[in-house]
Amino acid sequence: MKTLFCLLGLVLIVEGLPYFAFPEKMKHWVEKILEMPSAHLRTMGLLAMGIGLLITYFSRP
């Protein structure tokens, strides 16, 4: 459980960093994301989950 909370903390740091460091660019990105079709966003989400699963699988002890 401790590892899960550590991982969650790291994810929040990585997710929050661009909003802290580049708020104006992130606003522009969000506008672009709103213009994308839902199918494209789903494909990107599936790809990100797949890559995350592979990284997790191959980096486990």
Portion of residues in beta strands equals: under 5%
Low-confidence spans = none
What is the H-and-E element order?
HHH
What characterizes the major β-sheet?
Answer: none
Number of structural units classed as domains: 1
Judged by helices, strands and strand pairing, the structural class is mainly alpha
- End-to-end separation in angstroms reads 16 Å
Assign an overall shape: flat
Helix fraction by DSSP (H/I, runs of at least 4): over 70%
Protein traits:
about 60 residues, single chain, mainly alpha
Could you walk me through the main structural features you see in this protein, from its secondary elements to its overall organization?
The protein has one domain. With 61 residues, the chain is mainly alpha-helical. It has helices spanning 2-21, 23-35, 38-59. Helix content is 90%, strand content 0%. The longest helix has 22 residues, at 38-59. The chain is flat and about 40 Å long. It contains three helices and no strands.
Task: Quickly describe the structure.
With 61 residues, the chain is an all-alpha fold. It has helices at 2-21, 23-35, 38-59.
Topology:
Elements lengths: L1 H20 L1 H13 L2 H22 L2
Helix pairs in contact: 1-2
